[in-house]
Amino acid sequence: MQTDLHEADSIMDAIAPALLSRLESALGELSSTVAQLRAAANTDSRWPQQEPREYLSVKQLAALIPYSEQTIRNLISAGEFKEGLHYYKRRARVVFRWSQVERWLSERQNYNNAGQGEEPFYPVHHARSRKER
Q1: Contact criterion met (CB below 8 Å) for 74 and 125
Q2: Which residue has the higher pLDDT, 21 or 98?
Q3: Which residues contact 68 (CB under 8 A, 6 or more apart)?
Q4: Which of 13, 46, 77, 116 shows the greatest Cβ crowding within 10 Å of its Cβ?
Q5: What is the pLDDT of residue 47?
Q6: In what order do the strands lie in the sheet with 93-97?
Q7: Residues 113-124 as b or e (16 or more Cβ within 10 Å = b)
């Protein structure tokens, strides 16, 4: 039993340097490949940045602008977004027109930069009163 362990240790001592050098060369090759891929990803035009589509759902719009889905719905209720201009209702779903939303955002940015709109927009919630019985 003792000799078997001794033989296994001597075999490992013989194999270890070769195995270690192979692992080190593979690791170096991998790191250079990763560096090349990162450089190519920054300059490669085969995968252009995807432009937003012209017509977007509320969820898609919320991913593109700094407002949540609920805030967008509140902006609709408050009249900030106009039906027929900024959005359309199609089969009981709201569909936004990206070009008009971009224009609205830039107008809003210009208004805020002019010093006229220092305060952020807070949509007003108009609570419904209970029906009397």
Answers
A1: yes
A2: 98
A3: 62
A4: 77
A5: 46
A6: 55-56, 93-97, 87-90
A7: eeeeeeeeeebe
